[in-house]
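Weekly sync, protein design subgroup
Attendees: M.S., D.O., the rotation student, P.L. (late)

Item 1: inverse folding check
M.S. brought a backbone from last month's batch and wanted to see whether the design step gives back something sensible before we order anything. D.O. pointed out we never logged the input encoding, so this time it goes straight into the notes. Structure tokens as presented (1277 positions):
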């Protein structure tokens, strides 16, 4: 042998050093290094592989961070060819990079490694430096605990720190030392045919000696771990028949057998005894400590004669079901779909390549781009080692399920405990590996706990996947998926368990895995299935918004938004305006399947609104309490809510140019469609799945800070971090959990650990608006922009306090304290809070009559509240000392809602003397409508009866700057305003109109018919016609006290018509009218005073004649006319007379014309443009129309006909515009004629009414109504 070169010298030194460090010195003479070098030389044809270096297990684990492979004996070409072959189906994936590393180590099953650790059935490579799991395609028991050189292997590192990587052994290892040859003796055995009857005999096991059974391996169960005990079953069958016996292998040192056993091979297992399983009583052969697994060799066995004790019963042949069916190819033809029917799954065998890991934790893999392999029903104790994209697997006896889930595109191959999954070859690609962690795996736990079939399991997986994806950025994956093994259930479990329970209730079969494996008749959860139509879904918020929007436009039909009787008389402008804003409301059940709403409650300081949030987006929300109190749950910010009873509202904004109602079906006239989506629900219907982060952290955090706490002496330290942590959490609505956590920890350990708090009562809250506040500390404030802000007047209760641990809400120390201080100083305690910037987030939480607490973190200065206050006007202008001081609320302060004033105990009320000096600030609608009301800013509760979009009155256009600022994102044209008709209670006829211009509507969620709303600080106004109404002004605000009843409103029936109006007398009208929106009278139609029918241009309202607009200057291009009609009639009901204005279809009703006749009359008017007649006029006098006009003649004679004069039931509202009915009008002198005699009498002026509906009265009904009238009149007297 030549003298080694310098390089070789160096390499040898390194080899020696490696051997000293990594290999135990128990080898023969020359030490381990010599043996290894000898082996290396043998493997690589005599030369030392100088371009390779040794790597220890520890270095591999800790220094190799990317996948790699090493092939000691391969040439570059050999490697390239190998890599190329593996890339077939994955042109874009790179193959494993080659590393030049020599791996030497012991193969072990882990038995001596760590006494604590259970032998788990995995194989490992170990050296002195460490141990690492390995996966082998072929294994022999003799290899255990021997030193090997691994000529070809790949290392797959772990991406996440929790688990280690593993080694894939590609070629058989080369023993460093010669393996001991085992000399085998002749073994006496029995065959399954003889052994099988023994299992069914009832002779106690104790009496029997140990047996050896020889047979062919027919079935091999996966390794299972139940209650910390790992085991597996195998079946040996006769060589010539299907008769087989089950064997249970459960000794830790025998678990490695699982790697040796191959289906179809023949084996002998010695040292067997019989045992019956505790639960099911099934009898099996069980291995003992001395049992061995031997390959079957015909020359070395002799059949053991059974003594008398063994022979009890005659042998039985196994039932045919026990034999396994093999089919080599998978038939992927799509089965005929029979939803709802229970299908039997086929059992097949399949060989395929893993193309994708669908969900490692759930045990789902994609094979050959077309099949889903589910391994979850096996436990997969080897952490799915080797199952990387590119690996080839052979599946034996797996269940084939076609379309287990309606939405699942794959054919599913489900491996049950009777199936065998064999890794055929490793992936040659550098694909990542995701371990399947079986302990604490929520997927598997729920699968086993509820004994789920494949359809339910796949549905569960999709729910959980989405859940995790949506919320792990807020709470961290681990916390979400905490399972009930831990002290508190994670959110995922709280969400899923009730769903699963609801489905599986009734069929409470627990899974019996022994029976599954051992029963002769194949029973397992995969045997039968039925395509599942999922009962519910929980889509991401952005998906939900899309679904709702799509649905809202799918359902959209312009003609349904308007009643056709109204629409046909509308001009283009009014028509399009009425279509411009509509809404629809969806509940969970509006979707198929039902949608469960999940989201993290957040508050945006930008929009000052509550939102639900997930990773995909946000959804504004309105939350109310069922008792009508406003939502102020500051403690809920950041918590994960689940809501199933909710109203998802889609507001539709439409820009259209429909020329008239006839074109409503033609959607080409829709110019633009926009939406806004929000959700509203009751707090009581929301379930908190996960409390805000900080509360969960209490445990570990208090441990962390215990040292700090010891230093702080005194009363105030116990829970100081908590509110402060909340503050930090609240500021940033963006999901950024990791940062937040570290941030909290930092501040709590380094910052000053004290907070100051102060209690206050909100006595007035104003709306969001742009204000030009000049804060004193910001200098002169020259050129300052207007700031979006809101303000609230509050009453300080008690003095600032060092904030100690949270108390029960009822326990408010400040209220006890004020008792001592008496009433002096109470007047000084009022303050005006200014909220700007980030503190705008408190807007949705701050409500009138609420008791709140400010918590100032990192502060021990009790005067902090006074120090920040400043007078509202510069001191030199300050003349009045009673002005409350302004306090701009800093961003970092935290607001905490304590209680409502109505919830205080009497003692607290008395002590605080809170109520004194607080006048009633909420009025009723009736009070506001009353003439005697004097205030100009009003607050009142009411229910929205109707909302209509109308053109903004010109004098009420918002100022330019305001509209410019607020119009961004506004979906309504700024010249629009909304009229809300607000009533005291449902069905009440007393209605107050509230006008809100488009600029304010942007963030006013929940203004829907049926909603009860508390309006605050609205401006009360009186119209020219002495009608009272309110307008929403900059300082106004509102809160939703209750949500509309969950029914889709029928757009064709205008709100308010639902209940029939109350029957009144004309003589009583004077008393009622100012409060009545509508009423009904039984009256006699006396005569028609005026009647006019016309066609007007739909664009410009000029007369439309013979298909053209008559406007000439400038000429109007319109080709669309709209017919209109109006009439003024006189009615009397025996107690008085009234003028009634009728429009359009009501004119036909008053004239008693049928629809058909009315159409005909209107069509005749078309050529004339306009026809009108007046009561009492003679033919041809003073009229516009041609003297001989037939239509005019017809109408005139109709009006004079006695047939017109008849009893009718008239629904009406007060015609507010032309009359001044609220003004006491002077009495009028009127002539009456009775026969030949004329009388003159003083009468009240006739009230003027607007016809809403006319009904004919039949004789019977008339009698009925008359008798009721009489009854009511007499009771009146
Ligand atoms: Zn099965
Ligand atoms: Zn016109």
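Designed sequence read out in the meeting:
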């Amino acid at each position: 042998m030549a003298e080694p070169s310098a390089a070789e010298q160096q390499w040898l030194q390194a080899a020696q050093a490696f051997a000293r460090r990594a290999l135990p010195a128990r080898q023969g003479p020359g030490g381990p290094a010599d043996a290894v070098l000898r082996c290396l030389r043998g493997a690589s044809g005599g030369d030392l592989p100088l371009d390779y270096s040794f790597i220890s297990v520890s270095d591999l684990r800790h220094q190799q961070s990317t996948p790699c492979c090493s092939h000691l004996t391969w040439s570059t070409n050999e490697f390239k060819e190998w890599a190329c072959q593996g890339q077939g189906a994955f042109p874009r994936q790179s193959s494993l990079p080659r590393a030049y590393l020599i791996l030497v180590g012991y193969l072990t099953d882990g038995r001596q490694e760590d006494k604590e650790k259970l032998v788990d059935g995995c194989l490992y490579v170990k050296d002195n430096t460490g141990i690492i799991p390995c996966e082998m395609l072929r294994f022999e028991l003799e290899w255990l605990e021997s030193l090997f050189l691994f000529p070809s292997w790949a290392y797959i590192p772990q991406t996440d720190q929790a688990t280690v990587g593993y080694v894939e052994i590609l070629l058989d290892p080369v023993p460093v030392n010669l393996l001991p040859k085992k000399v085998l003796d002749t073994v006496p055995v029995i065959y399954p045919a003889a052994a099988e009857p023994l299992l069914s005999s009832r002779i106690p096991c104790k009496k029997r000696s140990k047996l050896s059974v020889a047979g062919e391996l027919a079935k091999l169960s996966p390794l299972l771990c139940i209650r910390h005990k790992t085991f597996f079953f195998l079946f040996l069958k006769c060589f010539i028949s299907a008769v087989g016996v089950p064997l249970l292998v459960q000794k830790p040192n025998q678990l490695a057998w699982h790697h040796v056993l191959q289906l179809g091979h023949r084996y002998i297992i010695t040292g067997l005894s019989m045992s019956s399983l505790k639960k099911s009583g099934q009898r099996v052969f069980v291995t003992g400590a001395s049992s061995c697994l031997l390959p079957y060799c015909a020359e070395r066995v002799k059949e053991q004669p059974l003594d008398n004790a063994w022979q009890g019963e005659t042998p039985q042949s196994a039932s045919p079901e026990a034999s396994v069916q093999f089919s080599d190819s998978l038939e992927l033809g799509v089965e005929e779909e029979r939803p709802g029917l229970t299908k039997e799954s086929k059992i097949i065998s399949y060989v395929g390549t893993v193309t994708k890991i669908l969900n490692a934790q759930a045990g789902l893999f994609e094979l050959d781009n077309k099949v889903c392999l589910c391994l979850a029903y096996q436990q997969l104790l080897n952490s799915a080692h080797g199952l990387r994209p590119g690996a080839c697997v052979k599946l034996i006896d797996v269940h084939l399920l076609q379309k287990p889930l309606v939405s699942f595109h794959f054919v599913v191959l489900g491996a049950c405990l009777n199936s065998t999954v064999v890794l055929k070859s490793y992936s040659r690609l550098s694909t990542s590996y995701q371990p399947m962690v079986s302990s604490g795996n929520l997927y598997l736990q729920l699968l086993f706990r509820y004994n789920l079939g494949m359809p339910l399991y796949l549905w569960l997986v999709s729910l959980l996947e989405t859940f995790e994806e949506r919320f792990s950025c807020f709470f961290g994956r681990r916390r979400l998926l905490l399972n009930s093994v831990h002290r508190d259930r994670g959110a995922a479990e709280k969400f899923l368990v009730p769903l699963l329970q609801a489905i599986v209730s009734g069929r409470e079969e627990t899974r019996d895995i022994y029976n599954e494996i051992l029963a002769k008749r194949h029973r397992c959860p995969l045997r039968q299935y039925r395509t599942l139509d999922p009962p519910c879904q929980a889509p991401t918020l952005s998906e939900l918004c899309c679904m709702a929007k799509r649905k809202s436009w799918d359902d959209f039909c312009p003609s349904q938004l308007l009643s056709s009787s109204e629409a046909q008389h509308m001009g283009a402008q009014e028509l399009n305006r009425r279509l411009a804003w509509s809404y629809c409301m969806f509940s969970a059940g509006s979707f198929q399947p039902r949608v469960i709403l999940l989201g993290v409650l957040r508050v945006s300081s930008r929009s000052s609104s509550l939102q639900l949030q997930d990773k995909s987006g946000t959804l504004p929300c309105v939350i109310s309490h069922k008792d009508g109190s406003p939502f102020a749950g500051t403690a809920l910010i950041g918590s994960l809510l689940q809501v199933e009873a909710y109203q998802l509202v889609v507001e539709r904004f439409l820009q259209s140019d429909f020329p008239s109602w006839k074109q409503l079906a033609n959607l080409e006239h829709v110019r633009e469609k926009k939406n806004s989506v929000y959700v509203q629900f009751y707090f009581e219907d929301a379930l908190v799945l996960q409390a805000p982060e900080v509360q969960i952290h209490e445990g570990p955090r208090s441990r962390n800070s215990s040292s700090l706490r010891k230093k702080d002496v005194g009363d105030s330290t116990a829970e100081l971090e908590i509110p402060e942590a909340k503050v930090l959490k609240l500021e940033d609505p963006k999901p950024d959990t990791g940062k937040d956590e570290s941030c909290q920890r930092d501040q709590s350990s380094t910052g000053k650990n004290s907070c100051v708090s102060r209690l206050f009562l909100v006595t007035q809250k104003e709306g969001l608006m742009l204000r030009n506040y000049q804060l004193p500390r910001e200098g002169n404030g020259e050129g300052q922009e207007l700031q979006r802000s809101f303000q609230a007047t509050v009453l300080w209760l008690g003095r600032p306090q060092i904030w100690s641990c949270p108390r029960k809400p009822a326990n408010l120390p400040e209220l006890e304290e004020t008792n001592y201080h008496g009433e002096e100083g109470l007047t000084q305690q009022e303050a005006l809070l200014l909220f700007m910037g980030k503190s705008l987030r408190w807007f949705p939480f701050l409500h009138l009559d609420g008791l709140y607490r400010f918590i100032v973190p990192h502060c021990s200065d009790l005067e902090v509240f006074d120090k920040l206050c400043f007078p509202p006007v510069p001191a030199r202008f300050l003349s009045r000392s009673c002005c409350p001081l302004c306090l701009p609320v800093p961003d970092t302060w935290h607001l905490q809602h304590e209680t409502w004033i109505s919830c205080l105990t009497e003692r607290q009320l008395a002590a605080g003397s809170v109520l004194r000096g607080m006048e009633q600030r909420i009025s009723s609608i009736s009070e506001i409508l009353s003439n005697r009301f004097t205030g100009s800013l009003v607050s009142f509760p009411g229910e929205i009866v109707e909302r209509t979009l109308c053109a903004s009155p010109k004098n009420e256009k918002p100022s330019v700057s305001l509209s410019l600022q607020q119009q961004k994102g506004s979906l309504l044209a700024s010249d629009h305003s909304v009229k809300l008709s607000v009533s005291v209670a449902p069905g009440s006829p007393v209605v107050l109109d509230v006008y809100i211009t488009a600029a304010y509507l942007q963030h006013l969620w929940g203004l829907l018919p049926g909603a009860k709303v508390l309006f605050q600080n609205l401006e009360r106004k009186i119209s020219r016609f002495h009608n009272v109404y309110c307008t929403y002004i900059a300082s106004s605000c509102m809160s939703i006290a209750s949500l509309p009843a969950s029914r889709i409103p029928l757009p064709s029936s205008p709100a308010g018509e639902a209940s029939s109006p109350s029957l009144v007398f004309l003589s009583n009208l004077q008393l009622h009218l100012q409060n009545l929106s509508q009423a009904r009278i039984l009256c006699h139609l006396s005569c028609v005073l005026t009647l006019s029918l016309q066609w007007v241009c739909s664009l410009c309202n000029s007369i439309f004649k013979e298909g053209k607009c008559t406007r000439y200057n400038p000429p109007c291009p319109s080709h669309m006319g709209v017919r209109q009609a109006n009439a003024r009639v006189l009615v009397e009901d025996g107690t008085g007379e009234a003028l009634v204005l009728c429009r359009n279809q009501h004119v036909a009703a008053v004239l008693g014309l049928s629809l058909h006749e009315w159409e005909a009359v209107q069509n005749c008017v078309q050529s004339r443009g306009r026809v009108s007649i007046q009561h009492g006029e003679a033919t041809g006098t003073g009229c516009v129309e041609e003297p001989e006009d037939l239509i005019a003649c017809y109408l005139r004679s109709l009006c004079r006909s006695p047939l017109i004069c008849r009893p009718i039931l008239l629904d009406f509202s007060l015609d507010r515009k032309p009359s001044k009915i609220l003004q006491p009008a002077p009495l009028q002198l009127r002539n009456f004629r009775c026969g030949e005699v004329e009388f003159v009498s003083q009468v009240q002026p006739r009230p003027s009414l607007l016809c809403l509906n006319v009904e004919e009265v039949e004789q019977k009904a008339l009698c009925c109504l008359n008798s009721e009238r009489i009854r009511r009149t007499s009771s009146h007297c």
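Discussion: The first strand starts at residue 53 and ends at 55. Residues 399, 416, 418, 522, 524, 526-527 surround zinc ion (ligand 1) (CB under 6 Å).
Action: P.L. to compare against the previous round before Friday.
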